[in-house]
Amino acid sequence: MALSNPPSKPVWDYAPAPESFRPPIAEQHGLFIDGKFVKPKSGKFMKVINPATEETLTGVAEAGKADVAAAVEAANKAQRKWAKLPGKERAKYLFRIARRLQERAREFAVLETLNNGKPIKESRDGDVPESAKHFFHHAGWCDKLRYAIPGGGDPKPVGVCGQIIPWNFPLMMAAWKIAPALACGNTCVLKPAETTPLTALRLAEIFQEVELPPGVVNILTGGPETGKLVASNAGFHKVAFTGSTEVGKLIIKACASRHVRLTMELGGKGAHIVFADGAIDQAVEGAVQGIFYNQGQVCCAGSRLLVEESVAEEFKAKLLKRMESLRVGDPMDKNTDVGAINSASQRDRICKYVNIARTEGAEVLECGVNATPKKGFWCMPTALAGVQPSHTVAREEIFGPVVALMTFRTVEEAVMRANDSAYGLSAGIWTEKSSKMFEVARRLRAGVVWCNGFNLFDAASPFGGVKESGFGREGGRHGLLEYMAH
Ligand code: NAD
């Protein structure tokens, strides 16, 4: 039998595999204060949409000053009792939360994808298990806190924590904030981002199911105005923020005149360095994961790809070929690699940067399978070739599926270019030479450096930035210290 020749370009037309399960979503959501869902005193509600279809999913409350005050009061009332519970008793609650998250994993994954626009395979295999892992990990710490303190000591909570989070990993960011705070005996008031409050509100249902004492966690939905009210409320002993550097600075200013502990997890412009002796095919895969995961809406994305000149052309060709196979479209389809951008304004911001890159002289290479759907907010995976270190796209955070390709000739130049950024959150190195790996890793000014891999996380491993990427750590022993008084 004659075999037909393979097509010159691979065809990736999988049959659609849409997720068939859709959790019920209430028409309107109140605020979660003192263990109950309550109507906002502000009387205000806002729309929450699905960014892949622009359909309205539900309405959520917009917390005002009196709501913030009520949440702080509830958290304050609950704090002493919660802190007095023996660690092993607090641990039971955290274990139950983790187990319940696992049991309801599919519901949370679908809800996250509907609300955020990220591919279901990412929310299913990344966000939800990672969130459960954070509660499990911190459950284990509850009765061992004194071992987390350098030299040992008497663990004491900070008190009532105001926590403000962004929209790129809504459930995971909530877990990263709440789990260590609770483990150390603190109570919380969490404000999710305005576009993605749904999984945090559903997490509140789990808190009710596991009978977490009222007031230990309170969830206030709302936009920047609610965030400002949280940042300026004098009842907090700590404010923990994850979001843009710009807003981080405003929060630091708002807190400057009072005694309040701060952690700031801010923006990034990660350098991803590929040396000529690195495993090129694996590095291409790492680069793809580093910038197209979650549509590149990742603080630690490898958005500056620095490739050694002698392999730059080969690397670029392989990268573009790999990008050709990325499926863009319905986030609820299990085959989708790149889903919807979270909002129209974020999509416009990404387009603005791509246009700036074009006018500054970069070559814009858009790739990916299939045309984007008519409704919703989309960006094709994009590589910008010929970017110079002075170009705007090499300096400012784009926060989208756009990678800037640059070259270098020596180790010295690679380190200098990687460190030539106001940010210092993440970096990656691809080399087969361990001496080079350690030398470069040591010299990079970044909170986290991955070697021969990218975007690798573990609840036991601290994460956070330096320079304009912020201060403080989340995860591991270092993350616990942020929630203990000392
Ligand atoms: P953002 O700063 O606009 O908003 C983050 C949160 O702050 C939201 O809940 C928002 O409602 C609230 N907010 C906005 N203005 C406020 C104000 N004046 N006072 C108080 N709160 C306010 O960020 P975003 O667009 O939601 O998220 C994207 C940014 O987050 C990117 O810069 C990204 O790098 C960063 N980020 C950092 C990390 C990290 O760990 N370092 C993780 C995820 C995202």
Summarize this entry quickly.
The protein is built from 15 helices and 20 strands. The chain has helices at 65-84, 87-103, 105-116, 120-141, 170-183, 198-209, 224-232, 245-255, 280-292, 309-324, 344-359, 392-395, 411-419, 434-443, 476-481, and strands spanning 28-29, 31-33, 36-38, 45-49, 56-61, 160-164, 187-191, 217-219, 238-242, 261-265, 271-274, 304-308, 363-366, 382-385, 402-408, 423-424, 426-430, 448-451, 466-467, 470-471. Strands 13-14-15-12-11-17-18 form a seven-stranded mixed sheet, sandwiched between helices. It has a six-stranded mixed sheet with strand order 8-7-6-9-10-20, with helices on both faces. Strands 1-5-4 form a three-stranded mixed sheet, with no helix packed on it.
Write the layout of secondary structure elements.
Elements: E1 28-29, E2 31-33, E3 36-38, E4 45-49, E5 56-61, H1 65-84, H2 87-103, H3 105-116, H4 120-141, E6 160-164, H5 170-183, E7 187-191, H6 198-209, E8 217-219, H7 224-232, E9 238-242, H8 245-255, E10 261-265, E11 271-274, H9 280-292, E12 304-308, H10 309-324, H11 344-359, E13 363-366, E14 382-385, H12 392-395, E15 402-408, H13 411-419, E16 423-424, E17 426-430, H14 434-443, E18 448-451, E19 466-467, E20 470-471, H15 476-481
Parallel strand pairs: 1-5, 6-7, 6-9, 7-8, 9-10, 11-12, 11-17, 12-15, 14-15, 17-18
Antiparallel strand pairs: 2-3, 4-5, 10-20, 13-14, 16-19
The protein binds nicotinamide-adenine-dinucleotide.
Nicotinamide-adenine-dinucleotide is lined by residues 164-168, 191, 193-194, 223-224, 227-228, 231, 242-244, 247, 250-251, 265-268, 299, 397, 399, 425, 465, 469-470.
